[in-house]
Amino acid sequence: MTLHTPFTELVGIRYPIVQTGMGYVAGARLTAATSSAGGLGIIASATMSLGELRTAIREVRRRTDAPFGVNLRADATDADERASLIIDEGVRVASFALAPTRDLISRLRGAGVVTMPSVGARRHAEKVARWGADAVIVQGGEGGGHTGAVPTSLLLPQVVDAVGIPVVAAGGFFDGRGLVAALAYGAAGIAMGTRFLLTSDSPVGDAVKQLYLGKSLTDTVVTTRVDGVPHRVLRTPFIDKLERSGRIGGLARAVRNASGFRRLTGATWGSMLRDGRALRHGRELTWAQLLLAANTPMLLRAAMVEGRPDLGVMSAGQVVGLIDDLPSCAELIDRIMAEAHTTLARLGALPASPEVR
Fold first, then answer.
1. Helix 79-88 / helix 50-63 crossing angle, nearest 10 deg
2. Is the dihedral of CA 277, 280, 286, 289 positive or negative?
3. Residue ranges of the domains in the chain?
4. CA neighbor of 141 nearest in space, from 239, 199, 211, 222
5. Buried (b) or exposed (e) across 238-266, using 16+ Cβ within 10 A?
């Protein structure tokens, strides 16, 4: 059973379901599995080199002929090179971890790439719509990773009423009832991160997945101690320690993490600090936060790749407290669509003019 919306028509997918780009999680395997199942899989490129991104794109294409996307940091020092790669490889969709520039949107659109920025405020949605973005992902405060404070139920209708492009809702979605609710608000689809992280197609280790599954609705926290901007993560002893650390301890930890990041990637101190400054967005960050902003991928890698949540961070939406299984992407999407159609049928069976008693 398909469900057509302006977004599915725009990108050429069967179902209005997006798997978001998650560092060290949304690689070729998860992206291909999502797209093969009828949704839109998105490769997270911020934690990949250009060569690794090229390999991931070609691996997805080897696994499926369905449309997929690539998420990139528009403020990265090599954003132009990544955009060229997306164009040259014929990727269908470009999404953005941070607001893209007008020129970047224009360049990608001119090459036939669908542009889809992620925003957390109406004014940002209005800005990228004026710049020519084809669609927008709107993430409410319930979402994982970098997030705002306004809940999805309030932010979504505000943005839908403000822009004339397809709006994809993110933050708090995990089932078919949520999809129908988003459509009722005027969205053209939903995007999910944590729910796709907790699938059998996700590359995250089983021990870390079980840690996620054991969390409740109150086991996430929004902290600015990771990279200076609000970031929703699982509450762990590491995060509690980070929250309590003073300026000296935080700076020492940031330098250690930065050194590890340099050894792993070959990045220079100069490039790391430039990337860190680009993340500031006008905020006054401490030197510790600036270093952490430049090497947050190391903190993600420790938990997601190396299986060491005691040494890293785990992005998570509040919805983690409602997830208790690890289906495949195909099973998950089929289940969501079945629930959505059941919900729509139930709503359609309600009397149009109920008797007032």
1. 30
2. negative
3. 6-205+323-348, 216-304
4. 222
5. bbeebeebeeeebbebbeebbebbbeeee
Collapsing DSSP to helix, strand or coil, 138 comes out as strand
Contacts of 50 (CB under 8 A, 6+ apart): 78, 81, 82, 85
Question: What count of other Cβ atoms lies within 10 Å of the Cβ of residue 331?
Answer: 15
Distance CA 147, CA 166 (A): 20
- Beta-bridge partners for 40: 18
CB-based burial label for 352 (10 Å; 0-12, 13-18, 19+)? exposed
Enter the CATH code of domain 6-205+323-348. 3.20.20.70
**Which of 143, 174, 169, 193 minimizes the C-alpha distance to 24?**
193
pLDDT in tens, the chain (357 residues): 789 999 999 999 999 999 999 999 999 999 999 999 999 999 999 889 999 999 999 999 999 999 999 999 888 889 999 999 999 999 999 999 878 999 999 999 999 999 999 999 999 999 999 999 999 999 999 999 989 999 999 999 999 999 999 999 999 999 999 999 999 999 999 999 999 999 999 999 999 999 999 999 999 999 987 777 899 999 999 888 888 876 656 666 666 666 665 665 566 666 666 666 655 554 555 656 666 665 577 788 888 988 988 878 999 999 999 999 999 999 999 999 999 999 999 999 998 776 655
Q: What DSSP character marks residue 100?
A: P
Q: N- to C-terminal Cα distance for the chain?
A: 38
Measured CA to CA in angstroms, residue 82 lies from 50, 103, 137, 211, 329 at distances of 7, 14, 20, 34, 27
* Global confidence as pTM: 0.90
Could you tell me the two tokens for 316?
A: 């998570």
Q: Which of 64, 66, 63, 61 is nearest to 88 (CA)?
A: 61
Inter-residue contact 200 to 326 (CB < 8 Å): yes
